[in-house]
Each structure stands twice: as structure tokens, then as C-alpha cells.
Specification:
Number of strands: 10
CATH architecture: 3-Layer(aba) Sandwich
Order of helices and strands: EEEHEHHEHEEHEEEH
CATH superfamily: Alpha/Beta hydrolase fold, catalytic domain
Strand order of the largest sheet: 1-2-4-3-5-6-7-8
Strand content: 25-35%
Radius of gyration: 16 Å
CATH class: Alpha Beta
Number of helices: 6
CATH topology: Rossmann fold
Length: about 240
């Protein structure tokens, strides 16, 4: 496996992606990996490597800027990094579009075969990419934030998969229903897998804070991994 850091820009903001792929003479589909609220750290990079092991190019994108990271357990600091994007979805979409352009420019990538996946805040990011009308095959939100911002949507071209824990305190059942209604009314090819007895951040082995609502679930993580594989097999 080949892994490297690639710099790219959103206007004057320098960003750095972590890219992983298996050496090949042919171009491959690319899957953007949007990080959680703590930044493009090891968890997102390992996800890009798992995508590469599936035979695609994994592109762990950067929402915050090169060398800008939060930290485990620092809710206040991580929120300060995330909130400017959560509160202004036009800024978020622009940053995601920059990542999409950078990923498509990689020589090993088939620019017509692109998907995006994201964890927690990253789930919000990939859903906003879809809502922007971006020409991508599909997006996958993994314990992501489903609620839209105060911005109009374009026609959603992507297929949508959401992998959600029913007991996630950050996404209420009412928000889930509102999201399903939104997708239905927009005519989207969508799926939502709702895992029972499962909280937020269920794919992250380091998540162990029931009071905050973040708890790893080996069972839900295994099921989510299989659902992700099935979805990528289908769209590519």
C-alpha cells in the first residue's frame, strides 16, 4: 500500500489530505473520508487505509487546515473548530468542494467514480456535499449529524446511506424522521440503517463515555463495515 500526504487549498487556506491506495496500472474509484470534530487524525487516516485495502483510493480530507487538530476528550476545543462550519453550511460545502477537486486531480483516480463517507461531523460534511448537488456516486454518513443547515439545496444526485445508532443523543428520533422525509421528498435513493442499543461514535474503539453519549459497539461497527462495503460495491 502507498500512503502519502497531499497539500491542496480552499482559497488561501492550506489543507492536507492523507491518501492511501494500492499500486496499480489502472485508475481506481476514490472515496473521500471526512473526519470527526477532532480533525484529520489517525482515525480518519486508518479509514482511508481500509478503503485502499478494498481496492479504491482513500482520501482522508482536511476541513480545518494543515496541522490544525483538536484532541480526544476536548469537547470545547473540538466544538470551536467544528462550529464555524456547522453554523454556515455554505462555508462547509465550499471546503468539501475543494477536497472533491483535489481528489479528482490525483493521477491514480478515475475522476468519474467518486464517493464520500464521514464520521460524526464528517457525516454532516458528506451529506452537505450531496445536498450541494455534487456529481458523486454516493455518500455515507456514519453516526453523523443529519439535520440540514439554513441553506437551500440543489438536486441531490448521489445515493445516500446513513448508519445510525438509535440511542445517539446527538441525533433525536425526530431528526431521523425529518431526514427521512427530506430525502423522500427530494426523490433520493436513500437508506438508513438504525442500530438498536447503540450510541454515538459506535465505530470508534476509543469511544467510552456513556455520559456524553459516545460508546463503541463491536457489533454495530461490524455491521456498519459490511453495509459500507455493500454500498461501495453497488455504486462502483
Amino acid at each position: 500500500m502507498i500512503a502519502e500526504n497531499i497539500e491542496y487549498k480552499d482559497d488561501d487556506v492550506l489543507l492536507e489530505a492523507y491518501v492511501a491506495y494500492q499500486e496499480s496500472e489502472s485508475q481506481k474509484p476514490v472515496v473521500l473520508v471526512a473526519h470527526d470534530w477532532s480533525g484529520r487524525r489517525e482515525f480518519a487516516c486508518k479509514a482511508a487505509e481500509r478503503i485502499a485495502a478494498m481496492g479504491y483510493v482513500g482520501f482522508a480530507l482536511d476541513m480545518y487546515g494543515k496541522n490544525v487538530y483538536g484532541a480526544d476528550g476536548d469537547a470545547e476545543g473540538n466544538a470551536a473548530l467544528m462550529n464555524p462550519f456547522a453554523s454556515d453550511r455554505s462555508v462547509l460545502r465550499k471546503r468539501m468542494t475543494a477536497a472533491l477537486s483535489a481528489a479528482r486531480a490525483i493521477p491514480q483516480v478515475n475522476a468519474s467514480e467518486v464517493a464520500a463517507m464521514g464520521y460524526c461531523f464528517g457525516g454532516m460534511c458528506v451529506l452537505e456535499l450531496a445536498r450541494s448537488g455534487a456529481d458523486v456516486r454516493g455518500v455515507v454518513s456514519i453516526h453523523g449529524i443529519l439535520a440540514p443547515g439554513e441553506i437551500s439545496n440543489e438536486k441531490i444526485a448521489a445515493k445516500v446511506l446513513c448508519l445510525h445508532g438509535h440511542d445517539d443523543p446527538m441525533v433525536s428520533p425526530d431528526q431521523v424522521l425529518a431526514f427521512e422525509t427530506e430525502m423522500n421528498e427530494a426523490g433520493v435513493d436513500w437508506q438508513l440503517h438504525n442500530y438498536g442499543q447503540t450510541m454515538h461514535a459506535f465505530t470508534n474503539p476509543a469511544a467510552n463515555n456513556p455520559a456524553f453519549g459516545t460508546v463503541y459497539s463491536e457489533t454495530a461497527a461490524r455491521r456498519a463495515k459490511q453495509s459500507l462495503k455493500n454500498f461501495l460495491d453497488e455504486i462502483f
